[in-house]
Amino acid sequence: MKLIKLGMPVFLVLLSIVFLVGTYNLPKAKLGNPDAPLYFPMGVSVLLLVFSIIYLVQELRRANETNEQIAEMLSGRTPLLIGATIALGIGYALIFELLGFLFSTLLFLGALLFVVNGRKKWVANIIVTVVFSFASWYAFSELLGVSLP
């Protein structure tokens, strides 16, 4: 249980360090202050690092407490939903270029809704899948003029 509670703050500390180091690889400005493009990403990275360290210290202080919410989250159907969502997301990324936005979104969203809602709500699953997929395709492709694969 301790590993689960400390995993996210440790990950955030490491991520903020990676971002902070990455800001030094940004190109310098040609006009004005050459370091100006570094200020915002560096500030965000420093804030993320500070808040992540605070989060880590808080979790270390509470490391011996049992967290019923985590135990409840790891029981029942939740791990299946998390695993299925990750697997479907990876599958969506793999078929996106091959099938294009519309068909891959139809497959991904339809499968995800059937995993979450089950077969009993098949009519609602299909309606939401078709309406959302076509509406988002129309909004991006036709209204905004974004070229979709």
From TrEMBL:
<keyword id="KW-0472">Membrane</keyword>
<feature type="transmembrane region" description="Helical">
    <location>
        <begin position="101"/>
        <end position="117"/>
    </location>
</feature>
<feature type="transmembrane region" description="Helical">
    <location>
        <begin position="7"/>
        <end position="26"/>
    </location>
</feature>
<feature type="transmembrane region" description="Helical">
    <location>
        <begin position="38"/>
        <end position="57"/>
    </location>
</feature>
<feature type="transmembrane region" description="Helical">
    <location>
        <begin position="122"/>
        <end position="140"/>
    </location>
</feature>
<feature type="domain" description="DUF1468">
    <location>
        <begin position="10"/>
        <end position="149"/>
    </location>
</feature>
<dbReference type="InterPro" id="IPR009936">
    <property type="entry name" value="DUF1468"/>
</dbReference>
<dbReference type="Pfam" id="PF07331">
    <property type="entry name" value="TctB"/>
</dbReference>
<protein>
    <submittedName>
        <fullName>Tripartite tricarboxylate transporter TctB family protein</fullName>
    </submittedName>
</protein>
<keyword id="KW-0812">Transmembrane</keyword>
<feature type="transmembrane region" description="Helical">
    <location>
        <begin position="78"/>
        <end position="95"/>
    </location>
</feature>
<keyword id="KW-1133">Transmembrane helix</keyword>
